Amino acid sequence: MNIALYGRPVNPAQSELVKSVIQILHASGSNVSIHEPYLKFLSTHFKPGDKIASFSDTNELRGKTDFLFSIGGDGTLLDTVNLVKDSMIPIVGINAGRLGFLSSVSKDNLESAVDCLAKGHYSLDARTLIRLECNHPIFSGENIALNEFTIHKKDTSSMITIHTYLNGEYLNSYWADGIMIATPTGSTGYSMSCGGPIVVPQSESFVITPIAPHNLNVRPIVVSDKNVISLEVEGRSQHFMATLDSRSVTINSGYQLAVRKEAFSLQLVRLSSENFLNTLRKKLNWGLDSRN
After folding, report:
1. In this structure, are 195 and 106 located in the same domain?
2. Is 256 in the same domain as 135?
3. pLDDT for position 127
4. Distance spanning both ends of the chain, measured CA to CA
5. Sign of the dihedral through C-alpha 18, 20, 23, 26
6. Based on the domain organization, do 25 and 115 belong to the same domain?
7. What pLDDT does residue 104 have?
8. Residue 31: its pLDDT value, please?
9. What is the DSSP string of 79-98?
10. Which of 62, 117, 123, 292 is deepest in the core (most CB within 10 A)?
11. What local confidence, expressed as pLDDT, does residue 177 receive?
12. List of the chain residues with pLDDT < 50
């Protein structure tokens, strides 16, 4: 197998986990390459070895990589969206973080996970991506996200107003701190913390969730992902914050924004012992009696 490793070059504590990953992959006969900034970071903590190659962008992976291992937490895995783009390279999340909804492989089951990959004992979970369109250049053209797009107030304590349309038809003007459009994957993230519903990955929907709305009767709404959701924002301040997953930029009221479903999806690897419902029960402690 040809395996690419990606991680954020910030946490020295991950070096021992990465060493284990490399050793297990080499023992399985796999070829290993590491994202160039991450390789430079790891090299200050241990010597990865002469057999390790490096890569810097999608073109170096396309057609040459069987799996990309994301080592870290769910935030790290979100970064891989703009790395693999439309290459359809399956992503394996190695959880070095805490909750890990998306990063399901732990350090304790690394060997069995690699063995399952080699034997084909896994499934691919296609996750919807969102694409942001705008009348001005934004996010350096890397306008896709796995979890959510948000608009939020900036430099003021006052609420903002977000006029929202579905396929050009007026939905509502939200008076709030902000608004987000979440995918089913993102429904267990920021949207859930703002009172949004959990949506299963196969539901083909978006969740529109207001952030701290002024009118308490304004609730999150689930809409088909076949809709194009258009947004216009105004407020006392001339500047607002727009985010795609963990990336953020400053915009103004002259930005006209639209969110639609991306034509391609992210291929997330699920081992035979894992599925979305099991993950929900385990990560959210459903069914546990806290009285004990």
Report:
1. no
2. yes
3. 95
4. 46
5. negative
6. yes
7. 77
8. 92
9. HTHHHHGGG---EEEEE-SS
10. 117
11. 96
12. none
User: Which CATH number fits the domain that encloses residue 277?
Assistant: 3.40.50.10330
Do residue 185 and residue 86 come from a single domain?
A: no
Structure tokens at 80: 């891989």
Tally of domains within the chain = 2
Q: Does 255 lie in the same domain as 165?
A: yes
Give me the pLDDT at residue 278, please: 78
pLDDT tens-digit readout, 163-208:
999 999 999 999 999 999 999 999 999 999 999 999 999 999 999 9
Look at residues 32, 27, 28, 26 and name the one whose alpha carbon lies nearest to residue 2.
32
Residue 138 lies in a domain: yes
In a domain, 82, yes or no: yes
Same domain, 145 and 255: yes
Q: Is 288 inside any structural domain?
A: no
- CATH number, domain of 233, equals 2.60.200.30
Both 94 and 143 in one domain: the answer is no
Q: Which domain holds residue 169?
A: 130-261
Rounded CA separation 33/50 (Å): 11
Placement of tokens 């900034």 in the chain: 37
Taken as a whole, the chain contains a residue count of 292
Please report the pLDDT score of residue 262 as a whole number: 97
Helix 15-27 / helix 110-119 crossing angle, nearest 10 deg? 40
Q: Which two tokens stand for residue 12?
A: 């020295």
Q: What is residue 1's DSSP assignment?
A: -
Measured distance CA(70)–CA(286) in Å, rounded: 27
pLDDT at 213: 94
**28 HSE (CA, 13 A, CB side):** 22
pLDDT for 219 equals: 95
Q: In this structure, is residue 289 part of a structural domain?
A: no
Which of 257, 250, 160 has its CA nearest to residue 212? 160
What integer pLDDT is reported at residue 276 of this predicted model? Answer: 78
Alpha-carbon span 214 to 174, nearest angstrom: 8
Question: Catalytic pick from 74, 125, 225, 245?
Answer: 74
